[in-house]
Amino acid sequence: MADSAVAEISFGRVAPGICVRDIQAAQDFYARVLGFRKVFENGDPVGFMVMEKDRAEIHLSQKPDHKASTVNVMHMFVSDVAALYAICEVEGVRIIKGLADKAYGQRAFVFADPDGNRIDVGERRS
């Protein structure tokens, strides 16, 4: 029953929730390096924030004792992965996996934000 019922439901954009130790430092990183802008915040002091760029959305949650995972917490598709890789290099962002063509049809790399959250960035190859 669930399979047929869920087939009728349309899903919209999905936004990953990312835990960070310092939400203001995370906001600065995502704005300065990736061009995201804050569109919502909650709490006093702020403990939750929504950031957007184009069709992408990230939900940041302050967690002072956050420990980064060893797996990717988010995958982003971009229109020019090589240009974003170059920006990350110039900004001194920690690159986990260098820019490469992948067997699954993407050109991709993985970086870590200041809290160690791993983010996979890709561009579909034609």
From TrEMBL:
SUPFAM superfamilies: Glyoxalase/Bleomycin resistance protein/Dihydroxybiphenyl dioxygenase. It comes from the Bacteria. Signal peptide: none annotated. Residues 10-124 form the VOC domain. Pfam families: Glyoxalase (PF00903). This is Glyoxalase. It comes from Sphingomonas taxi.
